[in-house]
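go over this record:
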Amino acid sequence: MCIFLEIYSPFGVQLALIISASILFISILISLFAIYKLMTQSIIEYSTRIFLILSLLFVIYHQVSFLSLRVLTFVQIHLEICTNVISNCQFFMQGNLIGNAGLSFIQVSMSIDRILHLSFKNTYQKYRQFPGIFFVILTLFLSIYTYCYVIQDDELKEETKTCGELPTKSYGNYTNVLKFTFYLAIVDMFTDLIVLKLSMINEKKQRQLYSVTERFEAQAALKSTQTIMTISTIQFLSQILYTALFFILTYLIENFEGFTFLMINILGYPVPYTNTLHAVLIIHSLNRIKNQRLENIKSMTTQKQSSDEYMSKLKMHLVICNTVVSKCKLMIQGNLIGNSGLSLVQVAMSIERIIHIIFRKKYEKFKTIPGIIMTITTIYGAISVYSFIIGDNPFTDTVTTCTYLPMKTYPRYTQVLFFTFWLSISNLIVDGLILRQNQKHEKLQRNMYSVTKRFEATTSLKCTQAIMVISLVNVLSQILYSVLYFIIVFFIPDGTSFIFIFVNTLGYPVPYTSTLHACLIIYSLNRMRNQRRATIQSLTNQKQTFDDYIRNIKSAWA
């Protein structure tokens, strides 16, 4: 049996293919329904509708190509076809490259369109369809050019096991495109934040005007910008996850077993899920904007309220809705001590690895003492971070939800957030250097005559690899959490808006990364146990004479 049929024949892999195909099919139906809603409802601006329809067409193109890949894989399995000429896979490659690139470029086009709307409001209203048509043509051209750029050095004549693989010569260009779209998503994210803030300022100014028309137009523009901002956030997170997954699978592929690699590649690929969420958010935003628009029209045409009535209602709202922040003390302690403790324990593990490398013999003699010292230091450091942030705050503020911190603590919390963010990145770099040093040491010990030293070197390397993967998850968590924090604090001050509730409830990444943290520890322990048994069996069964040892040394130095 060929390798392809052997790795794809297990029931678990085929079940994963069925689940993935079902998700893709449902996503296509949802995207088609979203296009129907956009074409039949004119509740958002014309150019924004054009961009959203084009983005959904890119989504459908991508999902259809991946669905065809899943079907083609099933056909290969049941017809027992081991290889395929990669030129037959062009439809999938086009859907993957053009679809992903198109979604990135359409986000930039929507941001530029928003900037034009804010800068040249009167002219924009007069020629509103032309910017949309121009940027649609430009986006299509750049998306097709991206595909041509990636495969320009490849004749597409080599054989491949599955159409999920890119041509060998195209990986360099594909990596360049991936880095470019990743940085483009970051720039676009910050641009959208600025545009959203400007739209909020403009809407606040127009709210004071007597003209109902101008107030209504300002609110409509703000809702369109908020919709774009939400979709841009999803696209940004998708780029982070996809880029991280690509480089994990590329550079750490040897650390994954065949079944694990396939499950990550089939079910862990984030783009189908974010594309589905993209369509769902568009449908939800359309319904929400429609309802708010009806409420605004009704409010603007029937509102008769004096300033005294308004102030009395506002006071009643504060009495009913707000709670004293002192009641939220347990949640605040769990948030601050838990998050800072996770960052500090990563640093402690890295320091422990460094001590193990520098003082190998003494470490084996006193190996429990460094762990105890680091544990006590980490606990003290986490509690100190909480004390530093809270300080002498009296906990007398009133907040709408316990996710808020006391008002006076925000500057210190921001400082700690910046510090832990850069600490995590620095720690990841240090872990990479430690992993490299352990690999060199394990390679050196592999040819030594002492079985014990070879076993210890292999065990140390596996332990460092596990720490490296957990550290990578911690860095991704810090990046996501920092981005989310600054979005909420500086650009979504309205605690009752949909974006705030959605991001604060489902978008908070720490529960997901903490769960992944525990799962990775369990997986690493099981994997290290199995590898340790295999190593022991290999070393005990291996019979090596002194002449064999000398011959291995000579071949290593040759």
